[in-house]
Write a structure and sequence with these properties.
By secondary structure, the protein is mostly helical. The chain is built from 16 helices and no strands.
Length: about 425
């Protein structure tokens, strides 16, 4: 007996809703598991689990008591509050509450931020996908975000990168909606929360980008907030301390997964990991090669990208590799590159094209980095620690070059159409 079109359509809607329900239940399960993993953590100081959160809360308590939140004596060891006063100010109303209680709320919000970050990236990619593939993509983003060692490190330390990622992902979303000023404001706010993500503003220089001046106006409006807060809290001396702390933070004695940090680990007695060969000229040459490599990728991404969305996240990834101090958890900023290429593959589900190869190579990057524990002991080989950096470098290289190839071949993505939208003030 032939089914009526009404029954077929109803069955499809039911299956679609059931798929979303399954994805939401799975997301809740992963989120609860992550919360259970960290709810027993008791932040006690500048080292150990919850150390970054403890420093944020300590800075808030110093401000509440009328003191300067910046402590230069701890900076060399990688400790101390090094950001604008914003995060500390947001915690000031809770400064007198118990540390453990605030930690529980902070952890829950951080986990929710991971889900929202994944959701925002999915929303940007949703227009290129037919209905049932959207929950599949969202489920994929959530799984690859939570089952990822850099995310675990992030949540364990209580850092703010999950909130920064929301701001960056939201800036891409509003850009795709044509809201140029709002996009610039959100990038600027990410820099106020944590200074270096302001490097994402380089994406505004993308060749052919529309509404560049509006985005720059929004960026400047938001960036003004950082010095205003520093002046409001500590006057001129507070502003000077904020600027000095931001600059001096580059010299923290920490293992860095960047073009500057990896050659130092590999070819010098850094005290952070065992070198494979201590030879200063080799360190300098390797640093130069890596710097030119990443800058070259940055130039290619800005000049020959066929997608404003992919260009944005490729630029962010290049900034991560160029930072003086780039931590393991910063690898989270590369996740959208994987998600975007998987979304593109989901549009066709073809196994014989370059998109499938690119998505597959990026999956290998995720597999190579998702369960690598952080190592900082001098007894550990620097080569083992550097695997994550070279994996990240390979992932960005693959993404940028494939994007360049598609642009050269005239293969346009629907995301690139955003530059044709009328900007909204």
């Amino acid at each position: 007996m032939r089914r009526s079109p009404m029954n077929t359509e109803g069955g499809r809607k039911f299956a679609f809703r059931a798929l979303w329900f399954f994805v939401f239940v799975g997301t809740a399960y992963l989120a609860i598991r992550r919360y259970d993993l960290f709810k027993g953590v008791i932040p006690k100081g500048t080292s150990g689990p919850g150390n970054d959160f403890w420093q944020f809360l300590h800075a808030a308590r110093l401000i509440a008591a009328g003191h300067n939140p910046y402590n230069f004596s701890q900076l060399a060891q990688g400790n101390g509050y090094v950001y604008s006063p914003l995060i500390a100010l947001l915690l000031v109303p809770f400064a007198h509450a118990g540390t453990v209680q605030i930690w529980h709320v902070w952890t829950a919000l951080s986990i929710a931020a991971v889900v929202l970050f994944a959701g925002l990236v999915t929303m940007v990619e949703a227009p290129i996908l037919i209905a049932w593939r959207r929950p599949v993509l969202f489920g994929f983003t959530v799984v690859t975000a939570f089952q990822f060692m850099p995310t675990t490190v992030e949540l364990n330390s209580g850092q703010v990168d999950t909130f920064v990622l929301i701001l960056l992902a939201a800036s891409v979303l509003v850009l795709e909606r044509g809201w140029r000023v709002a996009s610039g404001v959100l990038i600027g706010l990410s820099a106020v929360v944590k200074t270096w993500p302001g490097g994402a503003a380089l994406s505004i220089l993308r060749r052919g980008r529309a509404g560049r001046s509006r985005a720059l106006v929004g960026l400047v409006i938001a960036l003004v907030l950082a010095p205003v807060l520093a002046l409001a809290i500590g006057g001129t001396s507070g502003f000077v301390d904020f600027v000095k702390m931001t600059i001096d933070a580059r010299s923290q004695h920490l293992a860095s997964l960047s073009v500057w940090g990896v050659p130092k680990l590999l070819f010098s007695h850094s005290g952070l990991a065992r070198p494979i060969l201590a030879l200063a000229p080799l360190q300098d040459i390797t640093t130069l090669v890596l710097v030119l490599w990443v800058i070259g990728l940055l130039v290619v991404a800005l000049r020959w990208s066929e997608s404003s969305v992919l260009c944005f996240w490729n630029v962010v990834a290049c900034v991560v590799l160029l930072l003086p101090v780039s931590h393991l958890d910063y690898t989270m900023y590369l996740l959208p590159i994987l998600w975007i290429w998987v979304a593109r593959w989901l549009t066709s589900l073809r196994f014989n094209d370059s998109v499938f190869v690119t998505a597959g190579l990026l999956m290998l990057w995720w597999i190579a980095t998702f369960d690598l524990s952080p190592v900082y002991l001098s007894t550990v080989s620097s080569l083992r620690f550097s695997v994550i950096f070279f994996a990240n470098l390979a992932a960005v290289t693959v993404s940028v070059l494939e994007d360049r190839r598609r642009a050269r071949c005239g293969i346009a993505s629907s995301e690139g159409a955003s530059d044709a939208l009328v900007g909204k003030g």
